[in-house]
Fold these 3 entries.
Entry 1:
Amino acid sequence: MSFKRAFSLPELLLVLTLFSLASALIFHLLHDGFRKFRAIHSKNDTQQKMSKALSWMQRDLEKADSDQIGMKRIGTPGNGDVIWFLSADDPTQGNPELRYVRDPASGMPRWQRHIIYYLIRPAHYSKISGGYNAAIDPDPRGDYFAPHKFLIRKVVNRSEHPEKLMTSYQVDAFVTAPADRDISALAAEAQVENCKLVADNLLSLEGTRYDRTLEIDLRAVHIERANATLPMGGISLKVSPYTENQRLRVVLKR
């Protein structure tokens, strides 16, 4: 007659300890792997969003004339720059080869519409940010406190034919902030023919002009990573470890 030997209490404790250590190690490895995956995904998503925004701007600016473009900082503190210029493209023309309109006598572009790009905080910033408001950055060169700004593109069709470049004062009427991601109210504004939210969760947009060269500096933040370690809304994110920077340089036509 044989008897099976049971585990002693010390042996059970040893097995449980080893199991706990192995479980903790596996959890740590999985957690670290997911953290690195989220970091890479956040970085790639931010970079793609910025590249898309600059691609939109480059496509429009390459058709702009150096004498028919304006640029300034938005008057309301806490926002980015506004860049506006005339376009000779007629979106009602179905034939792409005929869309760029020229004066038949002179061959010069016949300006049809204004295109406006501007970076602005949504009115309901705390709703977009997930519950916190951002202070106004005291830096006179830009606002780097609020990483949830919107890049808006508007096509404005005024009554003038051909159109003349709006003054710095006139463009202010079109630099309006949406409440949130719903931009239907902006699209319904008088003389606004088209309105698009090009990108959200951007930090800054700054334009610099050198003769016929326009350089645009765009910044965005890996928000999920920054939220975990930084007091968001109360510090400058201009050069934080989580801030991405991309530049666009366009040589404007004469």
Note: The first strand starts at residue 69 and ends at 73.
Entry 2:
Amino acid sequence: MFPKKVHYGLRFLLTLSGVAEGSHLGVAEIAERENISVKFLEAIAVALRKNGLVDVRRGAGGGYSLSKSLKEITLFDVVLVLDEKIDKEIGTEGSNTERAVGRFLLSVRNDYGRLLRRTNLEKLRNYYADENERIMYYI
């Protein structure tokens, strides 16, 4: 349902959320931690920066950091930036069946968008915390 770009973008943002305030992480370091292609992650980082979800600092000690807290970033924000198909036009012209299907799909997409807007990335961090607790429990 979600393209790899969205998955990797969320992993990128989650990794950045663990960085101390005022600190930055480079794409190469995150790519290595997450076992993601550096080139692919660089493209994702640039898109997230252009859309105001992350900040970049150039030079020594530079890298990326979140521009907002995870509570302020919604899943819709990320999907809108990284999923090119989300805004694809849905036709509502033509025969009665074409119009009905188009209206139906628009309704579903609108409901999907509302759900994504209500879901902030703080929930992602909570899932991450749950996974870490589960690992610690089994050790």
Note: The helical segments are 4-17, 27-34, 38-50, 75-82, 96-118, 122-138.
Entry 3:
Amino acid sequence: MQRVIVGGISGCGKTTLARALSRRLDLPYVEFDALFHGPGWTQRPSFVADVETFIAGERWVTDSDGYARFIGPRVLQRADTLVWLDYERPVVMRRVIRRTIRRVVLRERLFNGNRERLRAALTDPEHPVRWAWSQHGRRRRERAELNADRQLAHLTVIRLRRPRDTAQWLAGLAPIGR
């Protein structure tokens, strides 16, 4: 595992796992949401160039199998491992709702000064809570189809279906330098 994507639907725990893998395997890490979102939740003009620069490296981990409509299959083609967090909808919804509530209540600053707003969670179809609910089944089907794509046969796909499986898998990885 030298170039790793942690994928799954919004709120499933991609960022948390990618950060843990970064520490465990001593891999450079970048959060694609931070590269993508500029002020006011707009796309940063340098997003594609920033992704290209990052994935040109020989070793890395990122927390997104999304953004394909902006960058195509480049990241998947460059990766050697995809860790797919394929959790059931109730697990995902608990996580994404809890995260949104925490961010709203604590007024956490996110990417480039942005903040989540409760109103957006209720009205914006692109908000992670609404996105996770409406896209869960579709994204799951698309991921399964993509995993069968022969052009991506070079990828080792690790499909984790429960948080407990993820914790056990991560605990079983030998840390770098030991």
Note: Residues 3-170 form a domain with the Rossmann fold fold (CATH 3.40.50.300).
